[in-house]
Specification:
Blueprint (H helix, E strand, L loop, with lengths): L3 E2 L4 E4 L3 H12 L3 E7 H6 L1 H4 L8 E7 L8 H13 L7 E6 L1 H13 L5 E6 L2 H7 L4 E6 L2 E8 L4 E4 L9 H17 L2 H9 L5 H18 L14 H13 L8 H19 L4 H14 L10 H7 L13 E6 L2 E6 L3 H12 L1
Parallel strand pairs: 2-9, 3-4, 3-5, 5-6, 6-9
Antiparallel strand pairs: 1-2, 7-8, 10-11
Keywords: Cobalt, Lyase, Metal-binding, NAD, Nucleotide-binding, Zinc
GO biological process, one term: chorismate biosynthetic process
InterPro entries: Dehydroquinate_synthase, DHQ_synth_AroB, DHQ_synth_fam, DHQS/DOIS_N, DHQS_C
Length: about 350
């Protein structure tokens, strides 16, 4: 599988990538190699990874607790302290080995430590392979508010090795599938149709095409001024729903993909009401989502709290919530203004 060249770094695929990682380490003469893991990737992924790392440099492991609830500045401080205590300097390299939390947080930690050290992303979940590891976004949450603190910073390299997917649960695979659906609806309907028809589903090909799409978009708009906003389809309302469940003591947290899947159904409905997306296509999106994800009915008494969380979305300007909506499949419109009553209507549509 060929390498995808991003703006300043390559995305390599499969086992041959590790030779290139070893060459990177050798050529840059790094002082120390830090590997960031959580308890899950430490147990299941690190043993698969470490035999592939050919280097005589000092290797130090740093482990954090898994889960979105730990994607915060407090965890970052713990990692920064660990790197400092272990003798990290500007010639250190940080390797992130994990899912979206490890990737987002690790990139942010590396980019800020001593004003920036090099890092390499090795995603181990479908979500991080097709989304978080590529594109140069790093960051952490502020309370339950998603990705409020962060910056754009590119890794030296990304290694996508789908053998790590044997270590994750079916629920995590479904979480990553939501991002592939997003790419399909906004950019390449063939991807969506493959999932809808459940035919010829070769995970390597789905991953490669998703990374290819994200890279094509990011190359044209690295700082999300225009085109890159399409990657937020389903995320405006989806992030608010994810945050609401995260802060609710009486509700089980949703995975990122589960929340985004709900968001895509709701935002498809908004597209039909504001831009004329056909009812047939809206229903198709809903049917596909409900064929993959368990139904999580949104309680009417929670609608206002979810809508209130929308005001913290990063795409907002002057307090106005901006949505990415669809004129049609593969035909999008950015910076759409949506009345609050229609947002509530979209959640009622999902519940029906």
């Amino acid at each position: 599988m060929k390498t995808i060249q991003a703006v300043s770094y390559p995305v390599h695929f499969q086992e041959e990538s590790y030779v290139l990682l070893s060459n990177l380490i050798k050529n840059n003469n790094y002082s120390t190699i830090f590997i960031l893991v959580d308890e899950n990737t430490m147990e299941h992924c690190y043993p698969k990874f470490i035999p592939n790392l050919k280097t005589d440099k000092r290797i130090e492991l740093i482990e954090i607790e898994s889960g979105e609830i730990n994607k915060n500045l407090e965890t970052c401080i713990g990692v920064w302290n660990a790197i400092t205590e272990l003798g990290g300097d500007r010639k250190s390299l940080l390797i992130t080995l994990g899912g979206g939390v490890i990737t987002d947080l690790g990139g942010f930690v590396a980019s800020c430590f001593k004003r920036g050290i090099d890092f390499v992303n090795i995603p181990t979940t479908l979500l991080s392979m097709v989304d978080a590891s590529v594109g140069g976004k790093t960051g952490v949450d502020l309370g339950v508010l998603k990705n409020q603190i962060g910056l754009f910073a590119n890794p030296q390299m990304v290694i996508v090795d789908d053998r790590y997917l044997t270590t994750v649960t079916p629920r995590e695979i479904k979480s990553g599938t939501a991002e592939i659906i997003k790419y399909g609806l906004t950019y390449d309907i063939h991807l969506f149709n493959q999932i809808k028809d459940n035919k010829d589903l070769k995970i390597k090909d789905l991953i490669f095409r998703s990374v290819e799409i994200k890279n094509e978009v990011v190359l044209q708009d690295p700082k999300e001024q225009n085109l890159r906003k399409i990657l937020n389809f389903g995320h405006t309302l989806g992030h608010a729903i994810e945050s609401f469940y995260l802060e609710s003591e009486d509700k089980e947290n949703l995975t990122h993909g589960e929340a985004i899947a709900i968001g895509m159904v709701c935002e498809s409905y908004l597209s039909s009401q504001l831009l004329g997306l056909s009812t047939e296509k809206v229903n198709t999106v809903k049917e596909v989502v409900l064929s993959i994800y368990n139904k999580n009915n949104l309680l009417k008494q929670d609608f206002s709290s979810i809508v209130n969380l929308l005001k913290h979305d990063k795409k907002n300007v002057n307090g106005q919530v901006n949505f990415v909506l669809l004129n049609d499949f593969e035909d999008f419109k950015i910076d759409c203004k949506v009345p609050e009553d229609l947002i509530i209507e979209s959640m009622e549509f999902y519940n029906r």
